[in-house]
Amino acid sequence: MIPSKLAAIATVAFCLATPARAATCPAVTFAPTSLTITDWNPLGTAAVTATITATVAASASYSSIQVILVDNETGTTRIGVAGPEYNAVNGSTVISYPSGTVASSTTAPRTNLDNKNATPITLNLTVRGNTDLTDYVGGMEIAEQLRYSATCYKGGNGSNAPDSDTNVPAGPNVKVVVPKVISLQSASAVPLNFNNFTALSDTANIVLKSTSSINVLVSTQYGTTSSNQMVLAGVTAPYPTNTVIPYALTLNGTSIFKNTQLLNQTRGGQAGITYPLRLTLPNAPAGKVAGDYADTITLTLSAGS
Length: 305
Known about the structure:
The chain is mainly β. It folds into 2 domains: about 30-175, Sandwich (Immunoglobulin-like); about 180-305, Immunoglobulin-like. The protein has strands at about 30, 35, 50-55, 65-70, 85-90, 95, 95, 110, 120-125, 140-145, 145-155, 165-170, 175, 180-185, 200-210, 215-220, 230, 245-250, 255, 260-265, 270-280, 295, 295-305.
């Protein structure tokens, strides 16, 4: 008898093992989530500092963490692409870096973590003074959603290798609102002196910078809403004709009197602008009482629309 053949079919199952994922750092949140800075003056060089709290969730896996803020651009850290420069520190150590930086490659301090309670980290973010003299317009808003990088460690503050590294777009949103401000560059009190009337006109140049257009309100000590005059020292109202000297007054070519309002005059910008204040006598005074004649002209400047 011819033995029957036995056929055996072996089923081979192929299993692709999923590699174990390294644990990620505990969650880091920021307060405030949106930081708005309204008192930064682009016409000056003073910096403005605000505090941000980074809170790290409790962790049973890690004993310490490094946290840095990461800009969205390479090079200098700025708010937005071309906004003011900023830096952030943890204590005295800088923890703000250009795009692509990971915490483990920096000297950012390590903060010990708690396995039961969240751990706060205080960060101070400083918007630097406008030392590069960029011309910002009042009312504009410059914002950036910062990223952060966190590196976690399992060995306290020892020199062990980092166990996890993340770089996520969930840092604080920082916004700078450029204020409408004016900076007077010339002296606050400017004399216009006719001496013995050897000249019939004199000009004071008012130099200023501004982030917005400028409103001007004129006030004079002795003038009216339609005429200007100097008065002899020591004389009281009503002033005799022989104790007053009339004059014409213009600011940047526009005639002005008491209570004149000039609205939305040209913005000074970062480069500055000069407004000539010109006082002119119609003719050499005659028939006036000898003595010193004067008037006080006050220009009140405010930001325009």
